[in-house]
Structure formats: structure tokens, C-alpha cells
Amino acid sequence: MRPWTLRDYFPETGGCPIREWYARQDAAVQANFDATVNILRATDDWTASEVKEFKLLSAAHAGLAEIVFDVEVRKAGARKVSKRKFRPVGVFRPEEREFIFLLGCEKSGRIYIPSDAFEKALKLKAAFEKGLGAIDDHI
Questions:
Q1: What is the distance, to the nearest Å, from the Cα of residue 34 to the centroid of all Cα atoms in its chain?
Q2: What sign does the dihedral 135-136-138-139 (CA atoms) show?
Q3: Before 17, cis peptide (omega within 30)?
């Protein structure tokens, strides 16, 4: 099995959306994200039905893919544990065994935070495909 390469996209306008998103997350979110990335690095076929940490998107978001992970939280005074759902988005290139992170977002029901996450991701993907910006190894 050839290993997967994960990279971060740096738009020509500056910054790195996935790294900036990651830096804003608390330690539990960062730890779960890192663990999920490590699972995927060791997974041969990300699209296999038993792989729950990855999803190819379709329809209006065709060409994008998302990493899937949850973080359990207990709100102050709550009896039950709830889940926060996170969906880092990127470009899946299976022929190169590469995933390029574009940005991160959170999912609450059918709502994404930020609400325009996928529109931004599609714009970043288009810029990447035009050769604009740069990519670097995901750390």
C-alpha cells in the first residue's frame, strides 16, 4: 500500500484557511481531527463503505470531499452528552493518493458554520485548479 499524502492549500491572497480554522479550535477538536487524519493516512481505500471518516460530495458540491469527525461535549448543567460535527473540506485526488485541505467547518443539522463554507471551498478549489496559490504538507 502506497501511503496517502495530505496537503494544505495556501491561496494567493494569503493565509491558509485550514490551518487558521484548526488554530481556532479547542484541544478536543484538534485531537479528534488529528486522530481522524491518522486513521485516513493508514486507510487504503477511503471510499470503501466501512470508512466513516470520509465522504465524497455531489450535486452542487461535486469535486469536493469532506473529512468526517465528531466531538462529544457535555454542556454545563446538561445530563446528556451531545455531539459537535466537524467537516474539513478538500480536494480528493485518489490517483495521486492525495487529499488537499481547503478549509474547515462545523455541521449542525443541515446548517454549516460558516454558512458559506462550501461556496468558499468551491472558489478555493477553482483557484487551486488554475494553479494559483500553493500547497504544502499538512502538519
A1: 11
A2: negative
A3: no
The backbone torsions φ and ψ at residue 69, rounded to the nearest 5 degrees and listed phi first, read: -155, 155
Domains, in order of start, for the chain: 5-43+51-129 (3.30.2310)
Residues whose CB is less than 8 angstroms from the CB of residue 133 and which lie 6 or more positions away in sequence, other chains included: 9, 10, 11, 12, 124, 127
Phi (first) and psi of residue 18, to 5 degrees: -70, -40
Residue type for position 114: P
Residue tagged 471518516 (cell numbers): 53
Give the C-alpha separation, 36 to 30, whole Å.
Answer: 10
Nearest to 66, CA basis, from 99, 113, 108, 42:
99
pTM: 0.91
Mean pLDDT on 90-116: 94
